[in-house]
Design goal:
The chain is an alpha+beta fold and 573 residues long. Helices cover 65% and strands 9% of the residues. The strands form two sheets. Strands 1, 4, 5, 6, 7, 9 and 10 form a seven-stranded antiparallel beta sheet that branches. Strands 2-3-8 form a three-stranded antiparallel beta sheet, with no helix packed on it.
Amino acid sequence: MDQFNSVLAAINGIIWHNYVLFFILFTGIVFTIRSRFCQYIALTHGFHVIRGRYDDPDDPGAINHFQALSAALSATVGLGNIGGVALAIALGGPGAVFWMWVVGFFGMSIKLTEVTLSMLYRNTDDPDNPHGGPMWVVSKGLKKMNPNLAGLGKVIGTLFCITLLVSATTGGNMFQAWNVGEITQAYFGIPSIYCGVILAILVGAVIIGGIKRIGAVAGRLVPIMVALYLLAGTYVLFINSDQILGMLALIFNSAFSAHEASGAFVGGTMGYAFMYGMKRALFSNEAGQGSSPIAHSAAKTDEPVREGVVAGLEPFIDTLVVCTFSALVILSTGVWNRGGEARFDVPPEVVSVALDEWSLETKAIPPRDEGEWVEGELVFVIIEAHANPVSGNDLHRLNGTIVAENGVMVIDWNSIASPTKPVLHETDVYGSYVGATLTAKAFDSVTPGLGKWLITLAVWLFAISTMISWSYYGEQGIVYLIGQRAVLTYKLIYCLLIIVATMGFIRTDVHLDNLTSLGTGVVLFANIPIIWIFGTQAMRAYHNYVDRLKSGRMGPGHAPPPLDEVISGRDVD
């Protein structure tokens, strides 16, 4: 298994090369220009659409615009908004947040384009159960372009669906379940497998009902979970209101210059702030991956561009709103550059463990400033060694794990490769808080216990919402590959994999993450060329739609229906 995992890691290193990320950003810039900044239309007209002013029960589709957006958002608003932002700041510094905003802004044009294409080519043979996505775009589009290319379109569509299924069952399902089980067991002592069984029952009860039930649940769940998270973030920002302007200035300043080391933050260059911010934003809002067009293709509408405009709101809500709240909470509370939690009176010696490989002597950990150290907890110290391209200086983190030896808590240090012998930069010992844990620590720093309860609840809600939406993405892949007859079997397997992920048989944090990266990476390689090949059709349809909207030839068919009818979907029943 380790050898297989190494092969996956090597492949992902190629698939997720920095140049691939640059090309995705370039794609967003190009279609922003070609659409004459469609972001404005999405942020104005798009809100009128999801409010139900254009909903028509006689249009082909299964769910209204609001439910389609909620179903797509339920897949993107998730652990990336909690842990991914923390990771970007921890590695790239405050400047990474600015580049997340940039990618979120240009990602709006990618979403609009890919969803418009899926709406143009969706299969509406059954008007109440439409099928859409990049697989239909490439198979039907290439055949329309040249009948001799029909076979190639089918091959590309099949490849897309296979990798879509890998992503759906691993990252969209098992990885989510594993995270829920781990954090619940760590905080509350509830065995992970119990969480898996509960999740399987909850998810199964939703997905067995099909896209209408998924849309109905997402329409209620997504607003609640986003509102809950934003309210908690607002509380923290209110407590630290005097820090907000300074944090915004810090974000902008750090985006265009290196940020010096401070406390737990070892420093960050502008280049790496750009890279980490861009990567985290793309992982979070899934722009260009072709997954959310599958959910949007179920929307009730006879105007393909209209749902594309709605989809443009996804990166705005996901990245520019939810991710920004996480970032400001982390920055304003100071956990990203926090001080040490303990100090060595006599620092451990640097020892050689191999040629040009160094570590620290095993030594009892000094008392913590607050609370007690726990066996298995991760810590780190900051050392000076060779030049670090990420931090722009010679500082590095050296990680260690707290273990018990003869009744004494000691630190078992990792090693670091360096041509020069490292020296301790300082004697402080830092608690290592990664991803969602760092975000939870930020909330806890304001009100002890808030992070524990809020992040646990958020992880449950975000994971459930992600799993139900990704189940539908995988279902549509099954429909394309095999047909409707295999859908029930797929759903049962999907629910069983939730339990498998929480049984402890799989090193989920390593193997499933690599499988997920492989699936989403190959999906990206299949979908981005589709956007470029057929993008002109999407832009032509978009400009025609906007011209009719601005000239008054098209307008809302009725006043906004009651909000509860929009959320429940009763306005189109």
